Automatic annotation (TrEMBL):
Gene3D superfamilies: Hypothetical protein, domain 2. It comes from the Bacteria. Pfam families: Adenine_glyco (PF03352). InterPro entries: Adenine_glyco, DNA-3mA_glycosylase, DNA_glycosylase. SUPFAM superfamilies: DNA-glycosylase. It comes from Cupriavidus campinensis. This is DNA-3-methyladenine glycosylase I.
């Protein structure tokens, strides 16, 4: 549960979200909390791909449109999309109309199906790349966070996905996914949400 916020005592947050309401809500309730749901993981991977060259705020504000356009990112449904669906999506002003990114999302759904033939779940696969806490910075400050754009684990994850044929899964993109989905806790020291994420992680059962 997030701590209350008042005009006299504003909630302390990571500096990247500023005072933008959409960012603040996402920061307080989603970013960094551990996720073991395959649909959410696949959605995040796809949206990170669409974000390439854009801001996350742009994608966040279009997220509901993306969910409607991409069958709520249900892997099997997206994998069945055809060339007709690509043209439909290219005409949807509510999303990012980039042919390469649209086709990559559909392609990655099929890659996810292949991965699930050998892995118990997407979650079990992604969480194998959780860094050892001892390898993480002792203190996460805004300055440290600006330098944390990749990690050895995100590089390894990217390399393995690319080997499996996935697209738009570079090391920086995969690190952003790891930050958002709770594989790392990059909330700044002093951020009210940092302790909440730590508590959630302690109660979280890593999927195997």
């Amino acid at each position: 549960m997030t701590s209350p916020e008042t005009a006299s005592q504003p909630r302390v947050r990571c500096s990247w979200c500023g005072t933008i309401e959409d960012y603040c809500h996402y920061h307080d309730h989603e970013w960094g909390f551990p996720v073991d749901d395959d649909r959410r993981l696949f959605e995040k991977l796809c949206l990170e791909g669409f974000q390439s060259g854009l801001s996350w705020l742009t994608i966040l504000r279009k997220r509901e449109n993306f969910r409607k356009a991409f069958a709520n990112f249900e892997i099997d449904k997206v994998a069945r999309f055809t060339a007709r669906d690509v043209e439909r999506l290219l005409g949807d002003a509510g999303i990012i109309r980039h042919r390469g990114k649209i086709e990559a999302a559909i392609h990655n759904a099929r890659c996810a199906q292949d991965l699930l033939k050998t892995e118990p779940s997407l979650a079990a696969y992604f969480w194998k790349f959780e860094p050892d806490p001892k390898s993480r910075p002792r203190k996460v400050t805004p300055e440290v966070l600006r330098e944390l754009t990749t990690s050895p684990e995100s590089v390894a994850l990217s390399k393995d996905l690319k080997k499996r044929g996935w697209k738009f899964v570079g090391p920086t993109t995969m690190y952003a996914l790891m930050q958002a989905m709770g594989l790392v806790n990059d909330h700044h020291e002093g951020c009210a949400t940092r302790a909440e994420v730590l508590k959630a992680r302690k109660a979280f059962k890593v999927p195997r």
